[in-house]
Amino acid sequence: MTITEAEIVARFTGLEVHVLERWIAAGWLKPEDSSEGYRFDETDVARAHLICDLSFDMELQDEELALVLSLIDRLNGMRAMLHALTAAVQSQPAAVRDTILGKVRATLQAGS
Question: Helix (H, G, I), strand (E, B), or coil: what is residue 90?
């Protein structure tokens, strides 16, 4: 399900169309641009909620928002990579999994 630009603005106290459009221009939100205007999916709405919290409640400026959002995006990318790696390891025979886990534990202990 998607919602319109007017609907997303109405959802969040303090959010105005010009601010939403600034966030889109900055690449912080990536709605579908249809013939009827922007359409926001659940991911866009959740991210808009986060940006509203950071911007309005925590009073972060655009430069700070850009940094925080970049770090969150990188963390999410690492999570996706870790899930893929975990799935790849889980698909291996038990002996291979045990060897990998042993190497991981040894590496973690060496770094402590």
Answer: helix
Ramachandran class of 6: left when φ > 0, alpha when ψ lies in -120 to 50, beta otherwise: alpha
Element at 93 (helix H, strand E): none
Q: Tens-of-pLDDT digits for all 112 residues of the chain?
A: 899 999 999 999 999 999 999 999 999 999 999 888 999 999 999 999 999 999 999 999 999 999 999 999 999 999 999 999 999 999 999 999 999 999 999 999 998 7
- Using only the alpha carbons of the chain, give its radius of gyration: 20
Distance CA 28, CA 65 (A): 9
Tokens of 83: 């899930």
Q: Where are the beta strands (DSSP E) in the chain?
A: 3-4, 32-34, 37-40
